Amino acid sequence: MRGASVQRPSAVVIVAVCGISRQISFHEGPCPALREFRMQTLRISLLLTTALVTALPAGAEDTTALDEITVSANLEATGTDRTGATVTVVTADALAQAGDTRVADYLARLPGISVNGSGPIGTTASLYLRGAPAQYIPVLVDGIEVGDPASPQGAYDFGTLSTADVSRIEVLEGSSSALYGSQAVAGVINITTKRATKPGTEQSVATEYGQYATRKFSYSVATKTENAEAALTYSHLSTHGFSARDENDGNYEADGYRANRLSFFGQYTFANGLTLGANGFAEKSWGEFDDYTGDVAGTPGDDFTTRDTKGARVFADFVTGTVANTLDATWFDSDRQSCSNGWCDPFDGTRTKLGYQGATDLGATARLVFGADTTKEKSAGASTRTNGVFGELNWAAAEKLDLTFSLRHDDHSDFGGFTSGRIAAVYRLQDDLLLRASLGNGFRAPSLYELFSVYGDPDLKREDSQSADIGIEKRWGETASLRATAFYLDAKNLIGWDYAATACGQPWGCYAQVPGHSRRSGLELAGHYRVSPRLDLAAAYTYTDTSVSTGWAAVARHDLTVTATGTITEALSGDMSVHYVADRPDGMPEYAVVNASLDYDFGEGRTGYLRVENLFDKEYQTNKGYGTSDRAFYVGLRASF
């Protein structure tokens, strides 16, 4: 009987979403995105997931699931049980328990995400979300978009982002251009830095030393009163590293990295309810890399990159009548130099953005979020401007059904206007059993480099996409949870390198519009089970079909992470994770890597830890030809007071 109750609402949601989407011109013809989406394999996967739901412990079914809050899915705080979007929330405790140095290494544990690295920290790391590459995933840090305006396709490079200053990460999956504009084709990653967690003043310090002469240090101070809040964090990281090109191929030169980062946040609320605030960061780094040739004939290269990145945001929150308003301005600047054997190429880019957002209730069952923004990007003497207006209606259509309708229009200074939309629905079969579905379209404007560099073409048009997903989530209180999501993404008018293109006048080709489509479809599974009060198991699995791919690099078909977290004594706890990747592109072999950590609580806010990367010293590559860490030991201390 439970299987029947699961199937009927999901079919209703699909039909409703498909019908409404035709009205706002998501596509032409008889809803091709959903026709593809209902492929036999995905239907079977959802049926198998439903069977798993019924097989897990039934004794805890009466326990209501704990609420989580997302600010990414609907542009303001919303319970994850009230949104049809697929969102994963990562807390500061989860980051600390895992112990990963790079944010990318932790994100690789999550469903839907894969990461290809080009060596140690400081070298390029490319993140894929549901099989789509990084240029389709905007990354925001405290409301500041940090994608590099001077990079070839405007993507954010996760190779240098440390976990030292991160307190929360939200991963929003599915096309979100209706809220975030250009690039939000595959989803959005929203990062929040450290803040005060309670009234009073908090300080924390962390230090670590380990393999490859790696040293880490961070210090944070945060304070909170009834009307004010402030936070400041400094972090330092240095390492000798290992060879970016795989040492097993004859490359022996270690590629080091060092970075210093400072971030701040502050806000004050006046007696009349007006809140004024500012936040920002500055980071300087230097890191070595290997070009595609590696170490030629035993001669070490002299390849390194310097980065100087800065960002700032000022904002005002206030209420007029029944409308909650936010005004903000953001600025991001990237000054990057890539040097090889004495020759340096500068890449400078800036992004400024002004925005307004309002929100008001429309009766007892609906809430409207609306706004406008204007963004200017500059690099190498060229610039583009995008003006956008948007609106989102959140409607409690029934006691157990929430619908969200999002619409945005952007006007780009080079290719003109584009309208994007998203429809999302969540149906609560029970308080702890949810069905979700969403359908949206997205776009990516050509980057400044693609338009105006010596390899660019100023006549390039936007890239277009459609996406859909449908999922089920079941929770048994704090004992267990299971989430399954089937997804589909289709992109066309893609921009890529074409060796035959002549528009830029270069003999080896140009950036050009690539004929054909890239499609991604698959299944995400995520769950946890509390085996006992002392042992928790968690797993995340992603199946991705990349058989139709024009211009996008393929990702592994199977990606699985299993993590065990246990309490050994009152003071001693541990974490062990296994990451298994199989059926990889370019004939690359499958691999399984094990990481482990032990934490000892000394009391009074002090914790010592030992962590081991690549516990069994596995030789593997995430990016063909580039190296990964051998077995590596690190010891550290965290303290808060």
From TrEMBL:
It holds the Pfam family Plug. CDD domains: ligand_gated_channel (cd01347). One of its GO terms (cellular component) is cell outer membrane. Keywords: Cell outer membrane, Membrane, Receptor, Signal, TonB box, Transmembrane, Transmembrane beta strand, Transport. Gene3D superfamilies: TonB-dependent receptor, beta-barrel domain, TonB-dependent receptor, plug domain. Residues 82-188 form the TonB-dependent receptor plug domain. It is a multi-pass membrane protein. PROSITE patterns: TONB_DEPENDENT_REC_3. The keyword Zinc-finger does not apply. One of its GO terms (biological process) is siderophore transmembrane transport. It is found in: Cell outer membrane. Belongs to the TonB-dependent receptor family. This is TonB-dependent receptor. The keyword Amino-acid biosynthesis does not apply.
